[in-house]
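Supplementary Methods S3. Complex input for the LWBT4IAB-bound model.
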Amino acid sequence: MALFHVRMDVDIPRDLDPEERAETLAREKKYSQDLQHSGKWVHIWRITGKFSNISIFDVETPDELHEILWNLPLFPFMTIDVTPLNKHASSIK
Ligand SMILES: O=C(O)CC1=CCC(=O)O1
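Predicted complex, serialized as structure tokens:
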């Protein structure tokens, strides 16, 4: 098990076909919710006032996270920042 903090900033071009935009967003939602049901996508939080989210992933390896992120339907329109997390020595959980 390895935890990762991931920030995703979304920037969809204004001239993208509205049908393609809607279809991509619907696929993104299903992809994300399937991974949430699997337990791999542990948290997703909207960043206030931005088309961005902060997420926590619980995966086996960095390669697995890479595959997940690479296959996001919105991947071509995202800037993604990944921070690996280690257990803090003072954590009681
Ligand atoms: O809306 C976003 O922040 C992008 C996104 C990631 C998963 C999802 O459902 O939307």
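The mean pLDDT is 98. The longest helix spans residues 18-38.
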